[in-house]
Design brief:
By secondary structure, the chain is of the alpha/beta class. The chain is built from two helices and eight strands; from the N terminus they run E-H-E-E-E-E-H-E-E-E. Strand 2 and strand 3 form a beta hairpin.
Length: 133
């Protein structure tokens, strides 16, 4: 079994859609209504749906809720940090949390106030990514 789909309720479907397409490697597959629904897919086939939050939905996700996107190298994490910061997104400092390897990460608050983590995978080590001789 594989996790292949997630749905996010948001107050800003259009802004979140733009972030995922322009900066995070997703493509728009389908759009419905006036900024009420978007179906996105990334290069690995993961499907993300974004829906307008209903009036009866909570105003925000729990404080620890976030989405995690992985980059292959710390350099890619740093480049994405610079790109998002330059584009005016609210990005935190680059961190190296202790997660069983040389993890490089940062958090970005997206349109609709959803927290996104961009990081190298847990257990990542530069020597494990080196080309085989």
């Amino acid at each position: 079994m594989r996790l292949e789909h997630a749905n996010l309720a948001t107050s800003d479907v259009a802004g979140l859609t733009t972030l995922f397409i322009r900066f995070l490697g997703f493509e728009l597959v389908e759009k419905r209504g006036k900024e009420t629904f978007a179906l996105l897919r990334n290069q690995d086939g993961f499907v993300l749906t974004l829906m307008k939050r209903k009036a009866t939905d909570p105003d925000s996700y729990p404080a620890t809720f976030h989405l995690g996107l992985y980059c292959d190298t710390p350099e890619q994490v740093r480049a994405k940090h610079a790109e998002l910061k330059t584009a005016g997104f609210s990005v935190g400092d680059i961190q190296t949390p202790d997660r069983g390897g040389d993890v490089t990460a940062f958090y970005c608050t997206s349109p609709g106030n959803i927290l996104i983590e961009v990081a190298t995978p847990p257990g990542w080590r530069s020597e494990s990514m080196a080309p085989k001789a």
